[in-house]
Amino acid sequence: MKKEKYNVAIVGATGAVGEQMREVLEERLFPVDELRLLASERSAGKYLNFQSKQIRVDVLDENSFENIDIALFSAGGSVSDKFASIAARAGGVVVDNTARFRMEPDVPLVVPEVNAKAITEYKKRGIIANPNCSTIQMVVALKPIHDAARIKRVVVSTYQSTSGAGRKAMEELGRQTAAILNMREVEKDKFPHQIAFNCIPHIDVFLPGGYTKEEKKMIDETKKILADDSIKVTATCVRVPVFCGHSESVNIETEKKLSAKDVKAILREAPGILLVDAPEENVYPMPLDATGTDATMVGRIREDESIPNGINMWIVADNLRKGAALNAVQIAEILIRDYI
Ligand code: 25A
Ligand code: L14
Predict the structure, then answer these.
(1) Nearest to residue 242, comparing CAs of 184, 273, 294, 199?
(2) DSSP letter string over 89-108?
(3) How many Å lie between the centroid of ligand 1 and the Cα of residue 41?
């Protein structure tokens, strides 16, 4: 018997992503029976609004998942490590927003527009992984091009906003900007250098070989989601002084020749994509325009004149929505439609 409404938990409910999860569930009229808001002791006792009711934030513990059908996790990898399997054992399905389970072979890594069918694999562990925000917006655009012309190689540089590192990181950009304009000392906490009026080519930790873990995540996750290990990917991930919205310069090389016009025609029809490409009118995707929206915006589409089959494009999305909360709720929507 199918349920009419589901009990949903948000782990990390007071964070930047957790807040968006609550908003997206409400906006998309997800059939929520009970919404359970979970966070650390710091936030317990706070009240947050959902469907014009005030809901108390509780401390996350081993007993938090009784009667929960779907648990959306976004409180960091260590929290998922400890609690995701507890939630799954209690009978719920976990949609995990951290990197903890993404590359495990028996956990599906899902972007609904790209590989919704992989969701069925959740039955093995009770866990579905939500990909990295920069990966999600890129593969939404790559998938229809890959289907049409087979992508051989991707070269991506990202321009990632501070919200990806959480609420306190966004506040740091604001505080540093105000401090500089008032000629006060700049204080650093969340980033290794001053982020205001700067760009930092360093997201997550450095790995042997010189890539960062964020870059490695884009490389590995792209292959897993597109289910194609033959695609060559290289990435450079950069933090920029933007509050919200990640941008990416993406260069692809395809097996079959595609003109810029072909690519525009393909992307115009593609699920989740909004073509924003009228350079003659100064129209192209920008993070200020993407913030608060659900679309993955693509523009600046042009042929790469340095190789026979190359395309350049510029991809922007709200990293807290399509990059995190929206993608997780879209997965939950497929779960309740087809599986639970
Ligand atoms: O742990 P990691 O993997 O290194 O993750 C780092 C950050 O990445 C963000 C997440 O965002 C996290 O802080 N993040 C993770 N995955 C992401 C993704 N896919 C992602 N960002 C984007 N995309 P965040 O900072 O916005 O959210 C953090 C949420 O997690 C809750 N949380 C943390 N530890 C927890 C936990 N919940 C349960 N158990 C734990 N052990 C966290 O709740 C928040 O909801 P909170 O209660 O800890 O904090 C929120 C409030 O408390 C204040 N505050 C924070 N730290 C302190 C503090 N106050 C005093 N002292 C502190 N040290 C905050 O200002 C806020 O009001
Ligand atoms: O793997 O911008 O989900 O610092 C966590 C850190 C996403 C990016 C992840 C950041 C990342 C985020």
Answers:
(1) 199
(2) HTTPEEEE-SSTTTT-TTS-
(3) 11
Average pLDDT for 84-105: 98
- Summarised one tens digit per residue, pLDDT across range 101-154 is 999 999 999 999 999 999 999 999 999 999 999 999 999 999 999 999 999 999
Of the candidates 251, 264, 277, the residue with the CA atom closest to the CA atom of residue 148:
264
Determine if ligand 2 sits within 6 Å of the CB of residue 217.
Answer: yes
Q: How far apart are CA 96 and CA 83, in angstroms?
A: 10
* Cα 147 off chain centre by: 22
Q: What count of residues does the chain have?
A: 340
Q: What average pLDDT does the chain have?
A: 98
Tokens at residue 119, please?
A: 């969701």
Predicted pLDDT of residue 1: 73
Confidence (pLDDT) at 85? 98
Residue nearest (by alpha carbon) to ligand 1 atom 3: 76
DSSP secondary structure of 234-288: EEEEEE-S-SS-EEEEEEEEESS---HHHHHHHHHHSTTEEE--BGGGTB---HH
Helix, strand and coil content of the chain, in percent to the nearest 5, comes to 35, 25, 40
Which tokens sit at 304?
Answer: 């790469």
